[in-house]
Amino acid sequence: MTMSRILVATVGSRGDVQPYVALGQGLRAAGHDVTVATCERFGPLVTGHGLSYGRLSDDFLKLVDSQEGHAALEDSTNVFGAVRTNLRLARQAGPINRGLMSDVWDVARQVRPDVVVYHPKALAAPHAAEALGVPAVLAIPVPVSVPTGDFPVVGMPRLPLGPGYNRATYRLVAAGFAGYDRMVNAFRRDTLGLRTRKGAAMMAHDAAGRPIPVLHGISPAVVPVPADWPAHAEMTGYWFVDDASDWTPPQELADFLDAGEPPVYVGFGSMAGRDPERITRAVVEALQAAGVRGVIATGWGGLAPGDLPDTVLPLTEAPHDWLFPRVAAVVHHGGAGTTAAALRAGKPSVICPFIIDQFFWGGRVAELGAGSAPVPQKKLTAPRLAAALHEVTTSDAVRNTAAELGRRIAAEDGVGRATARIEAVVSQAA
């Protein structure tokens, strides 16, 4: 098809940005002009992968990174905890969200896109698309927006209450987003000159009443496509950024990998809680008790290395697609992106979840047989982690299941499928 201008808008941590950079790369490779609008600290990530950057404020991430933000996040272990978190941060978050909506609109006016692809936290995105008279596509790495009877919404327990219970849980997400309806409608009215809409903060339909397409950047090998999903919802496969070919490991890491059996990778992204020293001590003791070597990622404000034994190497960062194939197992927080990378590498996981969706991925990996039962960070002790490490590094069943799942995911083309779907949306709107 002819070249289109595409705006991709996302807000959040690196895990909320990197899949959209991958999607942007795929769209650019297909001949389109792509701008990724996201928080300012990720501008270099966007431009470093050959995409145009649209600036959004960093204030949201500064709030999350604050002491109050960390404390609130630690309370977000389920849907109800997330509601409490929103209430605790509402006073600070209100002005931040209003600023982000203005930022998205500023970028949209500059880009004049033919389609807007967005993360649900970019609240202004579908409204900006409506104001410009172009279609919007919701793109999301977690299955939370399309109800199904197959499983409850992320953050709610799996109970033997049948499809009715499962579908009902999705109303909790809609209720949470409804708290932003007044603010979003004020933006529609005062900034965009549009009429107010019911459910404005979580738009399911465009101005003509057509369902907004929803693309899930998830492998159907990990989350099977629900039989009751509507036609506008699709599971494309994961969206990966591949950096391995352009990355050279530091000599210390290369030497460490060559010096013995493949180590276990341990990294919690930016989520090591308020006591990273305790987490680090537990991790080191667990690695030693399990008799395995370890690489501990210390970047993104996470684990504090301190004094480590010779069998444990601290690492600021390394591309997951380079490092994970070279390790024995992956211990992580259960973010969607890290979970996907570990699965694609065919490596067992020990997931130590902190907040809502991480518990979902931890449970899913355990159900698939590709890792241990989750070890929630609040219950993380050296003996519990050591037992999980022993399981995933010695069980042939776990290792074989993870390897087979990795082969299935590697054969998918999630970015290609999502690109084709977005192109179809643009063609239909032309």
TrEMBL record:
SUPFAM superfamilies: UDP-Glycosyltransferase/glycogen phosphorylase (SSF53756). CDD domains: GT1_Gtf-like (cd03784). Pfam families: EryCIII-like_C (PF06722), Glyco_transf_28 (PF03033). Residues 307-412 form the Erythromycin biosynthesis protein CIII-like C-terminal domain. It comes from the Bacteria. Signal peptide: none annotated. Residues 6-139 form the Glycosyltransferase family 28 N-terminal domain. This is Glycosyltransferase family 1 protein. It comes from Myceligenerans pegani.
